[in-house]
Amino acid sequence: MISAEENNLLTEIGPGTPCGELLRRYWQPVALSEELPEGGAPVKVKILSEELVLFRDDQKRPGLLGLHCSHRGTDLSYGRVEDGGLRCLYHGWLYDVGGHCLEQPGEPGGGEHRGAIRHPAYPCKEAGGIIFAYMGPGEPPLLPNYDFLTAPEEYRAAVKIFHNCSYLQGNEGNIDPVHLSFLHQYLSEAQVARQRIVKGANVTDNTLLAEDITPTIDVEVTDFGLRIYTLRSAGPDKRYFRVTNFVMPNLSAFGGSTVGDGYAVHWHVPIDDTHHWKYVFMFSRTKPLDAELRAKNRFEVTADYHLTRNKDNRYQQDRESMKTKTFTGMGINFQAHDAFATESQGPIQDRTNEHVVSSDKAIVAARKLLLTAMREVKDGKEPRHIIRDPKANRLSHLVVLSELLPASTDWKRYVRQIESQQSASHAWS
Question: Would the pTM count as exceeding 0.70?
């Protein structure tokens, strides 16, 4: 249980709030690249409780500006993309991606004092099919060289999904190992995707997660956040071993359909205090993703990135299917299961009423990291996982595992060996 004050600190993300200031110290996804094609219209977006417009100028550069024109407040998402910037339809003021006012055409000489205008603008970068923005003060840090952003296009896939709840409860679902034995369980192995055979075993993770519902969980603080170790009994001399990660401040890396060869990521970006976008990534280190995997990443997702199973239709729960098919009766899409579990807590979970238990140790540790980081920002310090040295911008120690191991294995030493192997080479480097 945490206090109401701490709950507010963790979930209020608007400008000037402690959590909002923390999140603004990191690059955050603001759109999929596909939403902003060359020559396409500007896109109205809301991120971290700020109303903004995203556009791609005639040099193909993405720009993120305050939504309302600095002149008389007209909505710039209706504007014209031309002449090196975005032009307001009301009086023709023209802004570049840096927020400089290039023209005030209704004024003598094109606006004698236009250089004094500094329209709200945030620097953008594009990587891995995502447009990122830095919305904080000062010089932006480096965008982390995550494998799922630097892999060749055919080796990765990304989509985003709207969630009707706080970013925090979305992300906390990723670092909760026990729920895998319940929420996502298929009651029939015939439904389980072929990619989910566990390394070192001849069964799926679905089977192993169901056989031991009381795992041993350990948590280790790292430079990027938390590494979470989970061990389940898989027979007298075997252990089902998983490694997942909480990455500061609002994403997680864990096993997915490419685990062992790659991993999956959920990056939870607040729209406001009570809504967020979940950016869903998958990638492979060694081979292109096939059509089946790419389709899986967008299964039951609409053209505007909403789930077809949602709160309004009770996630299309079929109680008859709960007898023989799935634990939830909500189909086979994990994204729908996650949305149900987190959205049904309410827009912002009241954590003063929760009863945290020993298996929630990763969630407790992540909250402590976030609260500490907020204090560091308040004190003028840089929080964990801000990268400024290019030599340090290599995330080979971000290890994700899902394997069957002998019970005698020193599993922390085993993870260190995997770190060294990942550091030694990349298929695309």
Answer: yes
